[in-house]
Amino acid sequence: MQGNILEDASAIQILSEAKVVSNKITEKEVVASQTQKDIDGARVGYKPCGTFNAVLFFCIRDMVRVY
Asked: pLDDT tens digits, residue range 27-60?
């Protein structure tokens, strides 16, 4: 197959569709990155609560040793 690739209509259409798909993937990566940042922020917000609950759990567990 020889000739100018710009004259091949199906190749041009495939490349155009690939560019559209690539742009959509790029947009979704940006959204996923922002979502990951939001999740990390929420997780950090719950860390003090987890620490408190762990201390509370072990205090209650150790109370059985108190007479």
From this structure: 999 999 999 999 999 999 999 999 999 999 999 9
Q: What Rg do the C-alpha atoms of the chain give, in angstroms?
A: 28
Asked if 37 and 43 touch (Cβ cutoff 8 Å), the reply is no
Tens-digit pLDDT profile for residues 7-30: 777 888 888 999 999 999 999 999
Hey, what are 44's tokens? 């950090």
Cβ atoms within 10 A of the Cβ of 8, count?
A: 13
- For residue 66, the 8-state DSSP code is -
Token pair of 39, please? 């999740």
Domain coordinates of the chain in residue numbers?
5-65
Q: What pTM was computed for the model?
A: 0.56
